[in-house]
Automatic annotation (TrEMBL):
PROSITE patterns: C_TYPE_LECTIN_2 (PS50041)
Database matches in Pfam families: Lectin_C
Gene3D superfamilies: Mannose-Binding Protein A, subunit A (3.10.100.10)
Keywords: Membrane, Receptor, Transmembrane, Transmembrane helix
Keyword Zinc: no
Limits of the C-type lectin domain: 1-79, 109-215, 247-370
Organism: Collichthys lucidus (Big head croaker)
Lineage: Eukaryota, Metazoa, Chordata, Craniata, Vertebrata
Protein name: Secretory phospholipase A2 receptor
Highest rank taxon of the organism: Eukaryota
Transmembrane spans: 387-414
Length: 457
């Protein structure tokens, strides 16, 4: 949990000479091997020919993809891209540095704020108590916050409700605040017995998620505080072509996943569908999760599809086809060395885990088309303060000036053609009736012609 936003990984005290013993001399009793390793960028022959004689040391992955976060893999000990973590024995004569006896009202971790509520409560009671504290039952969507909450609940030493629940007898689960459910951390000891309709989930003292009847009383619950302040909300009227799926500001077509085309053929296929579309680009973890959920729900777990990324020979770097900045990546460990790439280098992603791999652009793979649709209407709703008051005042001033100009123009036209207006019999007998209670009998009725006479004096 302490590594979020840090380097791609850290060295830990294990190497290939004795993989069963830590460098401290203790025997290895726990392992967390990665399903993939950095040698994914090279085939087995290339790996053996280049690095067979080099010593390998263990890296703990800090990849933000939850399939790899915290996993272990071997890397050349001479590699300099990693950080490290030091460990020393705890002094048992001193009290623990952290204690949960007196928790603050708000517990901060990265960009999240948590609250802990205590007392025997059902899942529904927990939701109500979180709401009373201006928060929601917690949702856990990545391994970093899971690790943080694991430490917190472990120190509290009792299980706590979280915001996960089911409405279909345990077939599907959802977060009460609507967060995505791609990341999970079920306890291995949890089983499918005694499943009840509307069952709810709690975090046990070991951090694992377990199911229970929603009316079961538990000692506490974890709440997540919504971000403070009201942010402007912008809604877009986005219309996607038929059979395309809308997400954010883009439209996605998943039909070509079953096609087998080269990288350039895939790009041309997308352009023929919609001239503004191209092969899929992924700009955030949220977008990556959306794409994976769509593919998983359609049963494409074992497919590999093109990403709209290629090696730009002119800039000597990997680039997106739409020119967008490379702010998000999802390599198995670290980004590939561009010195080893050629002009025929493209990138694909495996649907099973969403990881990115290099491949030749002439390979034949499936693909997804994506288009950024022009926004028809943009509506912004924001608090009326500061600059918004200024805008309203300016609008009122402009309206007053326009009205004054129109009134002046009408008065000028009237004075210029006064004789014509005087010949109108209907205007000669028109009058303005004074309604004030203070008006005298002599000025109760004022003829418009009299007003004209006085105004000319």
């Amino acid at each position: 949990m302490l590594l979020q936003g840090s380097s791609v990984g850290v060295w830990i005290g294990l190497w290939d000479e004795d993989p069963d013993t830590w460098t401290s001399g203790k025997k290895v009793s726990y392992t967390n091997w990665s399903p993939v390793s950095p040698r994914s960028f090279l085939n087995d022959d290339e790996w053996v020919s280049r690095f067979a004689n080099e010593q390998l040391c263990m890296v703990l992955s800090n990849n933000h993809n939850f399939h790899l976060t915290g996993k272990w893999y071997f890397e050349r000990c001479s590699e300099s891209a990693y950080g490290f973590v030091c460990q020393k024995p705890q002094d048992v004569s001193k009290p623990p540095a952290h204690s949960c006896r007196h928790l603050p009202d708000n517990i901060e971790y990265r960009s999240h704020t948590y609250k802990v509520v205590s007392g025997n409560m059902s899942w529904y009671d927990a939701m109500h108590m979180c709401t009373e504290n201006d928060s929601d039952l917690v949702s856990v969507t990545d391994a970093y916050h899971q690790a943080f909450l694991t430490v917190l609940v472990n120190r509290l030493a009792v299980p706590h409700w979280i915001g996960l629940y089911s409405q279909d007898s345990g077939i599907n689960y959802q977060w009460s605040d609507g967060s995505d459910t791609v990341y999970t951390h079920w306890d291995a000891a949890d089983d499918d017995e005694d499943i009840v309709n509307g069952e709810c989930v709690y975090m046990d003292v070991n951090g694992g998620w377990r199911r229970a009847d929603c009316e079961t009383p538990l000692p506490g619950a974890l709440c997540h505080v919504s971000p403070a302040g009201i942010k402007p909300f912008i809604s877009y009227e986005l219309v996607c072509p038929s059979t395309w799926v809308k997400f954010g500001q883009g439209c996605y077509n998943f039909e070509p996943v079953v096609e087998k085309l080269t990288f350039e053929e895939s790009r041309e296929h997308c352009r023929q569908k919609v001239n503004t579309s191209d092969v899929l680009t992924i700009e955030s973890e949220t977008e990556n999760r959306f794409v994976l959920e769509q593919l998983w729900s359609s049963g494409f777990h074992h497919h590999t599809v093109w990403l709209g990324m290629y090696f730009n020979f002119d800039t000597d770097s990997l680039a997106w086809v739409d020119g967008s900045p490379m702010e998000y990546t999802n390599w198995p460990s670290k980004a590939p060395d561009t010195k080893l790439l050629t002009a025929d280098t493209c990138v694909n992603t495996r649907v099973v885990d969403g990881l990115w791999y290099l491949s030749r652009c002439t390979e034949r793979l499936g693909f997804i088309c994506k288009t950024i649709t022009n926004v028809g209407t943009e509506v912004e709703v924001a608090p009326i303060n500061g600059v918004y008051h200024g805008v309203i005042a300016a609008a009122v001033l402009v309206a007053v000036l326009v009205f004054a100009l129109l009134a002046g123009a009408m008065w000028f036209m009237y004075k210029r053609n006064a004789s014509r207006f005087q010949r109108l019999p209907t205007l000669g007998s028109a009058y303005y009736r004074q309604t004030s209670s203070q008006a005298t009998e002599s000025d109760g009725n004022v003829l418009i012609t009299d007003l004209e006479a006085h105004s000319g004096e």
